[in-house]
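We were asked to recover a plausible sequence for a given structure. The inputs and outputs are reproduced exactly as logged, with field labels preserved.

PROBLEM: sequence recovery
POSITIONS: 193
GIVEN STRUCTURE:
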């Protein structure tokens, strides 16, 4: 048995508020399925705080009931990535292309949050490279109906292409399809660091 002091009240409130805020953030994060939620875009507010004790009372145990309001601004990460790539592509010099894959990280941070309308400024940091532009249509035309050896020879003569791998479905095919629409052409960037 002890008498409740201001230090007890402060410590209990601090602990309970921290726990309630963490729980609210976790709930928001799990509810944001399919959306991107940044820590900077979460706001929590203690709505009510009801301790079961008062300063100077005698208490064996103390209990505090806290209600926390949590708000978050989320965004569609895929749409944001597409917007970023479109914006970056506008500045790419003629004859080159932006090499940005889904594996390349885009670091995002939030600023200028306006909670009244649910808007914020999203600042992004992207690291990528430029490569010689590749004419997909011309490459597909070049590859259609060729054997693996002939296709590899034709690709090795192209500027900027260092290596080619072919996957066939079904696996017993040994020639590329005669229709370019049946060829799935994918590019990857070699890391030169």
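RECOVERED SEQUENCE:
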């Amino acid at each position: 048995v002890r008498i409740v002091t201001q230090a007890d009240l402060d410590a209990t409130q601090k602990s309970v508020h921290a726990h309630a805020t963490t729980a609210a953030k976790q709930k928001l994060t799990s509810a944001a399925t399919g959306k991107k939620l940044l820590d900077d875009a979460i706001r929590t507010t203690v709505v009510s705080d009801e301790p079961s004790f008062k300063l100077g009372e005698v208490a064996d145990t103390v209990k505090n009931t806290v209600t926390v309001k949590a708000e978050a601004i989320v965004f569609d990460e895929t749409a944001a990535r597409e917007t970023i790539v479109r914006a970056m592509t506008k500045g790419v010099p003629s004859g080159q292309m932006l090499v940005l894959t889904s594996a390349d990280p885009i670091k995002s941070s939030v600023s200028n949050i306006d909670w009244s309308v649910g808007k914020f400024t999203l600042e992004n940091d992207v690291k990528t490279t430029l490569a010689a532009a590749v004419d997909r249509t011309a490459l597909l035309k070049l590859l259609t109906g060729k054997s693996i050896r002939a296709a590899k020879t034709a690709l090795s003569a192209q500027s900027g292409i260092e290596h080619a791998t072919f996957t066939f479905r079904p696996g017993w095919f040994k020639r590329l399809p005669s229709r370019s629409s049946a060829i799935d052409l994918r590019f990857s960037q070699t890391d030169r660091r």
